[in-house]
Protein backbone atom coordinates (compact mmCIF):
# COMPACT_ATOMS: atom_id res chain seq x y z
CA UNK A 1 0.00 0.00 0.00
CA UNK A 2 1.40 3.38 -0.99
CA UNK A 3 1.11 5.87 1.82
CA UNK A 4 2.24 9.41 2.46
CA UNK A 5 5.35 10.09 4.58
CA UNK A 6 4.93 12.75 7.25
CA UNK A 7 7.60 14.58 9.21
CA UNK A 8 7.71 13.88 12.93
CA UNK A 9 7.01 17.10 14.83
CA UNK A 10 9.15 18.21 17.78
CA UNK A 11 6.42 17.45 20.37
CA UNK A 12 5.98 13.96 18.90
CA UNK A 13 9.75 13.44 18.90
CA UNK A 14 9.76 14.47 22.55
CA UNK A 15 7.17 11.80 23.35
CA UNK A 16 9.27 9.20 21.54
CA UNK A 17 12.31 10.15 23.64
CA UNK A 18 10.21 10.10 26.83
CA UNK A 19 8.91 6.62 26.08
CA UNK A 20 12.42 5.36 25.41
CA UNK A 21 13.65 6.77 28.72
CA UNK A 22 10.55 5.56 30.61
CA UNK A 23 11.00 2.00 29.34
CA UNK A 24 14.17 1.80 31.44
CA UNK A 25 12.32 2.56 34.70
CA UNK A 26 11.29 -0.46 36.80
CA UNK A 27 7.67 0.64 37.11
CA UNK A 28 4.95 -1.13 39.06
CA UNK A 29 1.58 0.38 39.95
CA UNK A 30 -1.16 0.41 42.55
CA UNK A 31 -4.75 1.57 42.09
CA UNK A 32 -6.94 2.69 44.96
CA UNK A 33 -10.29 4.42 45.28
CA UNK A 34 -10.04 7.47 47.53
CA UNK A 35 -12.86 9.17 49.38
CA UNK A 36 -12.60 12.88 48.52
CA UNK A 37 -15.96 14.06 49.86
CA UNK A 38 -14.58 16.84 52.06
CA UNK A 39 -12.33 18.36 49.39
CA UNK A 40 -14.96 17.98 46.66
CA UNK A 41 -17.59 19.77 48.75
CA UNK A 42 -15.14 22.52 49.70
CA UNK A 43 -14.21 22.97 46.04
CA UNK A 44 -17.83 23.42 44.93
CA UNK A 45 -18.28 26.24 47.45
CA UNK A 46 -15.16 28.18 46.49
CA UNK A 47 -15.20 31.02 43.99
CA UNK A 48 -12.81 30.39 41.10
CA UNK A 49 -11.88 27.00 42.54
CA UNK A 50 -8.61 25.51 41.23
CA UNK A 51 -8.64 22.48 38.96
CA UNK A 52 -8.11 18.97 40.25
CA UNK A 53 -4.61 18.84 38.77
CA UNK A 54 -3.48 21.65 41.08
CA UNK A 55 -5.19 19.94 44.01
CA UNK A 56 -3.46 16.59 43.46
CA UNK A 57 -0.09 18.24 42.78
CA UNK A 58 -0.10 20.12 46.08
CA UNK A 59 -1.53 17.18 48.03
CA UNK A 60 1.18 14.79 46.83
CA UNK A 61 3.90 17.39 47.49
CA UNK A 62 2.61 17.80 51.07
CA UNK A 63 2.85 14.03 51.56
CA UNK A 64 6.34 13.97 50.03
CA UNK A 65 7.47 16.81 52.30
CA UNK A 66 7.25 14.43 55.27
CA UNK A 67 8.43 11.31 53.41
CA UNK A 68 11.93 11.71 51.89
CA UNK A 69 11.63 8.50 49.84
CA UNK A 70 8.97 10.20 47.71
CA UNK A 71 11.66 12.75 46.81
CA UNK A 72 14.25 10.12 45.92
CA UNK A 73 15.62 9.14 42.51
CA UNK A 74 17.62 6.12 41.38
CA UNK A 75 20.67 7.15 39.34
CA UNK A 76 23.51 5.20 37.74
CA UNK A 77 26.36 7.71 37.33
CA UNK A 78 29.10 7.78 38.52
CA UNK A 79 27.82 4.60 40.24
CA UNK A 80 24.34 3.30 41.14
CA UNK A 81 22.91 5.30 44.04
CA UNK A 82 19.79 6.89 45.48
CA UNK A 83 19.60 10.68 45.24
CA UNK A 84 17.32 12.54 47.66
CA UNK A 85 15.94 15.87 46.47
CA UNK A 86 15.57 18.69 49.04
CA UNK A 87 12.09 19.59 47.80
CA UNK A 88 9.48 18.26 45.39
CA UNK A 89 9.40 19.11 41.71
CA UNK A 90 6.23 18.09 39.88
CA UNK A 91 5.98 17.54 36.14
CA UNK A 92 2.38 17.98 35.00
CA UNK A 93 1.20 16.79 31.59
CA UNK A 94 -0.32 19.63 29.56
CA UNK A 95 -2.46 18.76 26.53
CA UNK A 96 -2.26 21.31 23.73
CA UNK A 97 -2.91 21.65 20.02
CA UNK A 98 0.04 23.01 18.05
CA UNK A 99 -0.08 23.47 14.27
CA UNK A 100 -3.27 21.41 14.16
CA UNK A 101 -1.70 18.46 16.01
CA UNK A 102 -2.61 17.19 19.48
CA UNK A 103 0.46 17.06 21.69
CA UNK A 104 1.48 16.69 25.32
CA UNK A 105 4.13 18.86 26.94
CA UNK A 106 5.27 19.00 30.56
CA UNK A 107 5.18 21.98 32.88
CA UNK A 108 7.57 22.06 35.84
CA UNK A 109 6.16 23.05 39.24
CA UNK A 110 8.90 23.57 41.81
CA UNK A 111 8.11 23.18 45.53
CA UNK A 112 4.31 23.02 45.08
CA UNK A 113 3.85 22.35 48.80
CA UNK A 114 5.01 25.94 49.40
CA UNK A 115 2.64 27.44 46.81
CA UNK A 116 -1.04 28.27 47.08
CA UNK A 117 -3.53 26.24 45.09
CA UNK A 118 -4.40 29.39 43.16
CA UNK A 119 -0.78 29.91 42.12
CA UNK A 120 -0.38 26.29 40.99
CA UNK A 121 -3.63 26.48 39.05
CA UNK A 122 -2.56 29.74 37.38
CA UNK A 123 0.74 28.16 36.35
CA UNK A 124 -1.09 25.23 34.75
CA UNK A 125 -3.62 27.47 32.98
CA UNK A 126 -0.85 29.64 31.57
CA UNK A 127 0.96 26.55 30.29
CA UNK A 128 -2.20 25.59 28.39
CA UNK A 129 -2.59 28.87 26.55
CA UNK A 130 0.66 30.86 26.44
CA UNK A 131 2.97 30.64 23.41
CA UNK A 132 5.40 27.72 23.72
CA UNK A 133 8.44 30.00 23.82
CA UNK A 134 7.09 31.73 26.95
CA UNK A 135 7.09 28.52 29.03
CA UNK A 136 10.67 27.73 30.18
CA UNK A 137 10.09 23.97 30.62
CA UNK A 138 8.59 23.74 27.12
CA UNK A 139 11.52 25.63 25.60
CA UNK A 140 14.04 23.38 27.32
CA UNK A 141 12.48 20.05 26.31
CA UNK A 142 11.72 21.12 22.74
CA UNK A 143 15.27 22.42 22.40
CA UNK A 144 16.56 18.97 23.35
CA UNK A 145 14.07 17.35 20.97
CA UNK A 146 15.43 19.48 18.13
CA UNK A 147 18.97 18.11 18.51
CA UNK A 148 20.38 15.47 16.15
CA UNK A 149 19.77 11.91 17.38
CA UNK A 150 23.27 11.26 18.85
CA UNK A 151 23.16 14.50 20.85
CA UNK A 152 19.59 13.77 22.03
CA UNK A 153 20.69 10.36 23.26
CA UNK A 154 23.62 11.95 25.13
CA UNK A 155 21.39 14.64 26.67
CA UNK A 156 18.88 12.05 27.87
CA UNK A 157 21.64 9.78 29.21
CA UNK A 158 22.99 12.63 31.34
CA UNK A 159 19.50 13.77 32.32
CA UNK A 160 18.47 10.28 33.46
CA UNK A 161 21.63 9.13 35.22
CA UNK A 162 23.16 12.13 37.05
CA UNK A 163 21.29 12.95 40.25
CA UNK A 164 21.17 16.74 40.02
CA UNK A 165 20.35 16.69 36.32
CA UNK A 166 17.65 14.05 36.67
CA UNK A 167 16.06 16.10 39.46
CA UNK A 168 15.92 19.10 37.11
CA UNK A 169 14.99 17.06 34.06
CA UNK A 170 12.27 14.77 35.46
CA UNK A 171 11.37 15.98 38.96
CA UNK A 172 10.33 13.48 41.60
CA UNK A 173 6.72 13.00 40.54
CA UNK A 174 4.40 13.55 37.62
CA UNK A 175 0.65 14.15 37.44
CA UNK A 176 -1.54 13.29 34.47
CA UNK A 177 -5.23 12.58 33.85
CA UNK A 178 -7.87 12.15 31.17
CA UNK A 179 -10.68 13.03 33.60
CA UNK A 180 -11.54 16.20 31.66
CA UNK A 181 -12.33 14.06 28.62
CA UNK A 182 -14.10 11.13 30.25
CA UNK A 183 -13.81 8.22 32.68
CA UNK A 184 -11.02 5.67 32.58
CA UNK A 185 -7.83 4.62 34.33
CA UNK A 186 -4.68 6.01 32.75
CA UNK A 187 -1.58 3.84 33.28
CA UNK A 188 0.95 6.23 31.79
CA UNK A 189 4.76 6.09 31.74
CA UNK A 190 7.26 8.63 32.95
CA UNK A 191 11.03 8.92 33.32
CA UNK A 192 10.50 10.14 36.91
CA UNK A 193 10.23 7.81 39.94
CA UNK A 194 6.56 8.48 40.77
CA UNK A 195 3.57 9.13 38.52
CA UNK A 196 0.06 9.85 39.78
CA UNK A 197 -3.05 9.76 37.61
CA UNK A 198 -6.67 10.22 38.65
CA UNK A 199 -10.08 9.60 37.14
CA UNK A 200 -13.38 11.44 37.30
CA UNK A 201 -15.01 12.25 40.64
CA UNK A 202 -17.84 9.74 41.07
CA UNK A 203 -21.33 10.58 42.39
CA UNK A 204 -20.40 9.02 45.76
CA UNK A 205 -17.49 11.51 46.01
CA UNK A 206 -14.76 8.95 45.41
CA UNK A 207 -12.02 8.92 42.78
CA UNK A 208 -9.82 6.17 41.38
CA UNK A 209 -6.13 7.03 41.72
CA UNK A 210 -3.27 5.16 40.06
CA UNK A 211 0.21 5.59 41.51
CA UNK A 212 3.13 4.15 39.52
CA UNK A 213 6.55 4.02 41.10
CA UNK A 214 10.11 2.97 40.46
CA UNK A 215 10.59 -0.32 42.31
CA UNK A 216 14.30 0.48 42.64
CA UNK A 217 13.34 3.38 44.93
CA UNK A 218 10.73 1.82 47.22
CA UNK A 219 8.31 -1.06 47.74
CA UNK A 220 4.53 -1.39 47.77
CA UNK A 221 4.19 -0.90 51.53
CA UNK A 222 5.31 2.73 51.29
CA UNK A 223 3.06 3.38 48.30
CA UNK A 224 0.07 1.95 50.19
CA UNK A 225 0.78 4.29 53.10
CA UNK A 226 1.29 7.16 50.66
CA UNK A 227 -2.18 6.74 49.14
CA UNK A 228 -3.75 6.58 52.59
CA UNK A 229 -1.90 9.74 53.60
CA UNK A 230 -2.86 11.40 50.30
CA UNK A 231 -6.54 10.83 51.09
CA UNK A 232 -6.04 12.40 54.53
CA UNK A 233 -4.25 15.45 53.13
CA UNK A 234 -6.90 16.00 50.46
CA UNK A 235 -9.66 16.01 53.06
CA UNK A 236 -7.79 18.09 55.65
CA UNK A 237 -5.10 20.57 54.54
CA UNK A 238 -6.36 20.91 50.97
CA UNK A 239 -10.04 21.17 51.87
CA UNK A 240 -9.17 23.75 54.56
CA UNK A 241 -7.35 25.90 52.00
CA UNK A 242 -10.32 25.66 49.65
CA UNK A 243 -12.75 26.66 52.40
CA UNK A 244 -10.60 29.70 53.08
CA UNK A 245 -11.26 30.94 49.54
CA UNK A 246 -14.13 33.42 49.39
CA UNK A 247 -17.41 31.53 48.83
CA UNK A 248 -18.86 31.91 45.40
CA UNK A 249 -22.00 33.98 44.90
CA UNK A 250 -24.54 33.10 42.29
CA UNK A 251 -23.96 30.59 39.54
CA UNK A 252 -20.55 29.02 39.20
CA UNK A 253 -18.90 29.92 35.88
CA UNK A 254 -18.73 27.24 33.23
CA UNK A 255 -15.29 25.58 33.09
CA UNK A 256 -13.97 24.02 29.91
CA UNK A 257 -12.75 20.45 29.81
CA UNK A 258 -9.16 21.64 29.47
CA UNK A 259 -9.43 23.83 32.54
CA UNK A 260 -10.85 21.06 34.70
CA UNK A 261 -7.79 18.88 34.24
Structure in words:
- This protein has 261 residues and is of the alpha/beta class.
- The chain has a single domain, classed as Chloramphenicol acetyltransferase-like domain (Chloramphenicol Acetyltransferase), CATH 3.30.559.
- Helix content is 42%, strand content 21%.
- The chain contains nine helices and eight strands.
- Strands 1-8-7-6-4-5 form a six-stranded mixed sheet, sandwiched between helices.
- A hairpin with a 5-residue loop joins strand 2 and strand 3.
- Helix 3 crosses helix 8.
- The chain is globular, with a radius of gyration of 19 Å.
- The C terminus is likely disordered.
Indicate how many domains the architecture comprises.
1
Which radius of gyration do the C-alpha atoms yield? 19 Å
Q: What's the N-to-C terminus distance?
A: 40 Å
Helical content stands at 40-55%
Under CATH, the topology can be stated as Chloramphenicol Acetyltransferase
Strand arrangement across the biggest beta sheet: 1-8-7-6-4-5
Based on secondary structure, the structural category is: alpha/beta
Quick structural summary:
The chain has 261 residues and is an alpha/beta fold.
Keywords:
261 residues; alpha/beta; Chloramphenicol Acetyltransferase; 42% helix; 21% strand; globular; Acyltransferase
